[in-house]
Every structure is written in C-alpha cells, then in structure tokens.
Design brief:
Elements (H helix, E strand, L loop, with lengths): L8 H12 L3 H6 L1 H26 L34 E6 L10 E6 L4 E7 L4 H13 L1 H8 L2 H6 L1 E3 L17 H4 L4 E7 L1 H5 L3 H11 L1 H10 L5
Antiparallel strand pairs: 1-2, 2-3, 3-5, 4-5
C-alpha cells in the first residue's frame, strides 16, 4: 500500500500568511485555502489515524467530523485576552479519551505551526485536583511510574515539557525517588517534528509511532484518574 502525504508546504505558507493578515476579511477571502490546505487534510489525517489509535487504546477517539470532533477550531477565544486577533496561527487535532469532554483526562495532540510542529501527550495545565491525584499515585507507586517512563522507545521519542515547582509540593519529601516528577505542574511530553517531516508520506506512521511509544505513560495517567484504558 502506498503512503499518503497529508500536508504540503502550502499549509505552512497559508499559516504564515494568516499570521501577517490575522483579520476576518482576509480569512474569509482565503477560506478556500484554509479548507484545502488545513482543514480537509487534517480531517483525512484524523480519519486515517483512528484505526491506529484504537490499537493503542480503544478508549481514545480520533473523530474526523469537521465540527465537534478532534479537529481544533481555527478561532481564538479572545474573551479574556488582550490580543484580539481572531484566528489561531496554527492548526492541529486533539485526541481525547471518550470521557474526556466530561471529566479531566490526558490526551494525544498534534500541533502544526510554521517552525513549531510537535506531538503533545499527557496532561498540560491540569487542575489542582487532577494534578494532586496523579501526584498521590506516583508517590504511592514509584516503581510503576518509573516502569511507565523507562522504556527505550519512550525515552527516544518523548521529552517532558512544562512547568515545575522549585520545591517539593506540600506534604512531599525531597528524598522521594520520583521527586522531580512530583514537582511537575504539567505531566506531559513533547516530540518535535520539522515541516519536512510533517509533509513526508510517512508522517502518519511517524506520529502513530510516537503515540505508541507513549502508551505505558498514557496508560499510567489514564488509570490513575480512574478511567478505563
């Protein structure tokens, strides 16, 4: 079976142009470019990723609907932002747990932006209760946590990202074997891709491989929150 290139240099050209002309009139005049270079290729990517995601976990969903599915909306939420630019200058998809719209849950994500493409996996900016639940699990089960993040495939593909506390969280000892992970405010990883890699015919397999490499990590987070894997 031949492999398919989902994305092209035209996607990144459109996003660069959008960054320069981030206004409704320009976007509406270039709507066909958005559909042809960003939305429709991503919907095909999401649909084809679905079977690969089910092999990683049947509880996670790749939903190719244009509205209400895995596709990230192009519109920014400007209600609480000083920046009133109406459009995101990136595109991507979020692959949630099937219960992820109603309860906190980790997720798989693909982020496509000129000069900044990556897979994000885990919990970014979790609420305090969710973070506390994960910390308690790691505290009680350090060996299980170490096993979940020690596979060579995981370490080769994924790097932890996000903010950490400078001191141990209240109630946790500095000498705990996983203290650096207990300090994390984000429990997530990043895997960068070049624009050339994103546009290559094997990108779907590359991204699916990244997600598969993080399966033990994601299973640990998911089940720690009482969700099925």
């Amino acid at each position: 079976m031949s492999k398919t290139s989902y994305f092209s240099a035209e996607l990144f050209r459109f996003l660069r142009d959008l960054k320069t002309h981030n206004e409704k009139a320009w976007f509406e005049a270039n709507k066909e470019r958005y559909l042809a270079e960003a939305r429709d290729p991503l919907l095909r990517f999401i649909g084809d990723f679905s079977s690969r995601l089910r092999k990683i976990s049947p509880q996670y969903v790749a939903d190719p609907r244009p509205v209400g599915g895995s596709l990230m909306r192009p519109y920014r939420d400007t209600r609480f932002s000083a920046d009133k630019s109406p459009y995101k200058t990136m595109t991507g998809a979020l692959f949630r747990h099937q219960k992820g719209k109603s309860v906190p849950a980790p997720a798989f994500m693909i982020h496509l932006e000129p000069g900044n493409c990556f897979a994000g996996i885990g919990l970014h900016g979790p609420d305090s209760q969710t973070l506390s639940t994960i910390r308690k699990k790691i505290f009680k089960d350090p060996q299980g946590w170490k096993a979940a993040i020690s596979a060579n495939e995981f370490k080769a593909a994924c790097s932890f990202m996000g903010e950490s506390l400078k001191r141990p969280p209240k109630g946790y000892s500095e000498d705990h074997p996983c203290i650096e992970d207990l300090k994390r405010k984000d429990i997530c990883t990043i895997t960068p891709y070049s624009e050339r890699e994103v546009c290559a015919p094997d990108f779907l397999e590359r991204f699916a491989g990244t997600c598969a490499a993080a399966s033990d990590f994601m299973k640990y987070l998911t089940t720690s929150l009482g969700l099925p894997w």
